[in-house]
TrEMBL record:
Key word Hydrolase present: yes
Alphabetical UniProt keywords: Hydrolase
Molecular function terms, GO-annotated: hydrolase activity
Gene3D superfamilies linked to this entry: alpha/beta hydrolase
InterPro entries in the cross-refs: AB_hydrolase_1 (IPR000073), AB_hydrolase_fold (IPR029058), Epox_hydrolase-like (IPR000639)
PANTHER family associated with the record: EPOXIDE HYDROLASE
Domain AB hydrolase-1: 94-400
SUPFAM superfamilies assigned: alpha/beta-Hydrolases
Any Pfam family matching the protein: Abhydrolase_6
Sequence similarity: Belongs to the AB hydrolase superfamily. Epoxide hydrolase family.
Protein's name according to its UniProt entry: Putative epoxide hydrolase
Length: 410
């Protein structure tokens, strides 16, 4: 790959006429607005099954609702037809949670398969949110610099608040009046789901995590002993995106095209060899950039959202929380506290194993954190050439695993 044209990020010569500078700023602003508008259009072009419809709710800020503005949370929701006179308790809500650098459209291929080949979409209520800070969801940052607002604990609370806004609990004050939830998460979304399953075991009745190890284990991979920091170089973004402000903001917002370029570059780097072999090379201001041949409307939806400063800041806060307050929450738990009580489905690709620290075993890691016996299913997805983005690169396999697991336990 041609090296990125970093010279294009340097300031123009001071000799440049002021009139030209003003004109460039005007054109950059117009381009940014165009990209942001196209991002929203791209997201709407990703065709989910017809039962899904957009919902947007204003949720009190989870950290300090009295002094911070309410969060605006976006999702797609689907509800089966109501059975009049049914005396059976309602089935749990299935919540599909995306990771970085995507948004809710990550799950479109999986849900298409579930709709076409299973009855899950017809039987279950389903919610597919944009995590706060991603896509169309917005949440104010913690003003004290603690990153608490974007901790996995607080984002998990936001998800439950959104579930309750879409399907309000009955007038009963009993906790049983709130919908039970099954969480299916990938990447950062899997970290939110894992934390929420531990924090709210009375409501979370099922957990599926995809292509992660717990955050504390992930940081242990950054070691000279782990193939002379090979894993550290592969997950450099865990440090880069977590650097204190304003470094990340200055770099990723230095132009309206650098954020989308970096997202495309990252997706290409984390894609498995099967899709990387079907890569087109795009000519960009930063050099020739490989782009996996995923559906164009999905790639556009994921990448072009990073022309918006709010999305860049949200993603940075996500990683800053992951390197600080999330670790505080994790380290406060003993071995029992790390376990989830509900049925657990863990899926991962071979690349997650290759990056592991010496002696690490992904399967044993999740078996130790789930319930005993067959209530924990930990499986590597062995489809040839699959990389990190399982819901895209192995959408049929993921959908089939999720459907079998959901049908067995719920």
């Amino acid at each position: 790959m041609t090296a990125p044209r970093l010279d294009l990020l340097r300031p123009r010569s001071p000799a440049a006429p002021p009139r030209l500078s003003c004109e460039l700023h005007r054109l950059v602003a117009l381009l940014a607005r165009s990209l942001c508008s196209h991002t929203r259009a791209s997201a709407s072009m990703a065709q989910f099954p017809p039962s899904f419809h957009p919902v947007e709710h204003s949720i009190p800020h989870s950290v300090n609702p009295d002094s911070l503005p309410a969060s605006s949370l976006f999702a797609l929701a689907s509800s089966p037809p109501q059975e009049s006179g049914s005396t059976h308790p309602p089935l749990p809500v299935l919540v599909f949670v995306h990771g970085y650098p995507q948004n809710h459209t990550l799950w479109q291929p999986v849900l298409d398969h579930l709709d076409a080949h299973t009855d899950l979409v017809k039987r279950f209520r389903i919610l597919v949110p944009d995590l706060p800070g991603y896509g169309k969801s917005r949440k104010a940052l913690s003003p004290d610099g603690s990153h608490e607002a974007y901790s996995k604990r607080e984002i998990g609370r936001d998800i439950l608040s959104l579930v309750d806004a879409v399907w309000p609990p009955s007038s009963s004050s009993s906790s049983d009046s709130h919908a039970k939830v099954v969480l299916i998460g990938h990447d950062r979304g899997a970290r939110v789901a894992y934390r929420l399953a531990k924090d709210s075991s009375e409501r979370i009745v099922g957990l599926s995590v995809q292509d992660i190890v717990p955050t504390t284990e992930q940081f242990k991979r950054m070691s000279y002993d782990n193939k002379r920091h090979a894993a550290s170089l592969g997950m450099y973004h865990w440090i880069f995106l977590a650097t204190p402000p304003p470094l990340g903001e200055m770099l990723l917002l230095s132009s309206p095209t650098i954020g989308p370029w970096y997202a495309r570059y990252s997706i290409s780097a984390w894609t498995g060899p099967a899709f990387r072999s079907r890569t087109e090379v795009l000519s960009t201001p930063y050099g020739d950039t490989p782009s996996p041949l995923y559906a164009p409307e999905l790639m556009d939806s994921w990448c072009e959202q990073y022309a918006e400063p709010d999305v860049v800041r949200g993603a940075l806060e996500d990683y800053r929380a992951g390197a600080s307050i999330d670790l505080v929450h994790d380290e406060a738990e003993d071995d029992e506290g790390r376990k989830v009580r509900c049925p657990l489905l863990a899926l991962w690709c071979a690349g997650l194993e290759r990056a592991g620290a010496p002696g690490e075993d992904v399967r044993k890691t999740w078996e130790a954190r789930g319930p005993e016996g067959d209530r924990t299913r930990a499986k590597r997805v062995d489809k040839d050439g699959v990389g990190h983005f399982l819901p895209i690169e192995a959408s049929d396999e993921v959908a089939n695993e999720v459907a079998e697991w959901v049908n067995r336990w719920f």
